[in-house]
Design a protein that fits this description.
four-stranded parallel sheet, single chain, Rossmann fold, 15% strand, 2 domains, alpha/beta, 246 residues, 8 strands
């Protein structure tokens, strides 16, 4: 009998508050491919906002809570619908715990943390979600965290090409930052908005109906520009795409 894959899901704070349907769709997809999904209601944040703002003591406190919330069973995978948060745990935690008694505990957990699409393609060796369907022309935005921190590029595209009715198009500068960058969008509003404009215009230039990504933070930023400028295009998280049609 095949071993059942057990997944502890991490729902980032902004997904929990602003995009709960994306979290539910991640669960839907994971259960579709045969995973047993657990959710720890005590979870909160990975600590990235504090870490990026330079509040290292506060970030360490949140990171320690994350470690305690998700390291009870080393046989479980930890999966999140956010390459940004996964990149934080996988990379920045090394600095946070480098001189900590929790370092060994963290190293064990570090090997089990995955963004949703890389878990599907790299761990489960799944290239398509049965029944997934979305009619429209889609272009994929490589978020900085997914591409540069997690090395995710081919997997999301492979999954998207298997979605019935979906035509995947490649826009220019798909790997260029959308301009969000957390507090960057607040501190450098004009530059941030110009970067979002460029991303949207590149997508419109190839006739895309949707901009899809692994990160709700990027999509939130892009969607704000789309709505303000009334552009004829939508954003969609890849978990929502893979959960469509069934």
């Amino acid at each position: 009998m095949a071993r059942r894959i057990i997944v502890d899901i991490f729902v980032p704070c902004f997904v929990d508050q602003l995009f709960p349907d994306t979290a539910m769709n991640m669960v839907k997809v994971l259960e579709k491919v045969g995973c047993e999904v657990n959710y720890n209601p005590n979870q909160t944040c990975c600590g990235q906002p504090a870490f990026n703002a330079g509040f290292f003591d506060e970030a360490r406190e949140v990171a320690t809570k994350f470690l305690n919330d998700f390291s009870n069973d080393v046989s479980h995978y930890i999966v999140a619908p956010s390459a940004s948060c996964v990149g934080m745990v996988r990379n920045a935690y090394q600095d946070i715990f480098v001189k900590s008694s929790n370092l060994v505990k963290y190293r064990t957990m570090q090997k089990k943390v995955y963004e949703l699409t890389e878990f599907l393609t790299d761990v489960l060796d799944i290239n398509s979600i049965p029944g997934a369907a979305l009619r429209g022309r889609v272009t994929y935005h490589d978020s900085c965290s997914a591409l540069r921190e997690c090395g995710i590029k081919a997997g999301p595209r492979l999954l998207l090409t298997s979605v019935q009715g979906l035509e995947l198009l490649e826009m220019e500068e798909s790997e260029t930052c959308c301009g969000f960058g957390g507090t960057f969008a607040v501190k450098f509003e004009a530059i941030s908005s110009a970067m979002a404009e460029q991303k949207v215009e590149n997508a419109l230039a190839i006739g895309a109906d949707y901009i899809v990504s692994t990160d709700s933070s990027c999509l939130m930023h892009i969607e704000a520009y789309i709505q303000k400028q009334k552009k004829p295009i939508k954003t969609m998280h890849i978990a929502d795409v893979l959960a469509s049609g069934w």
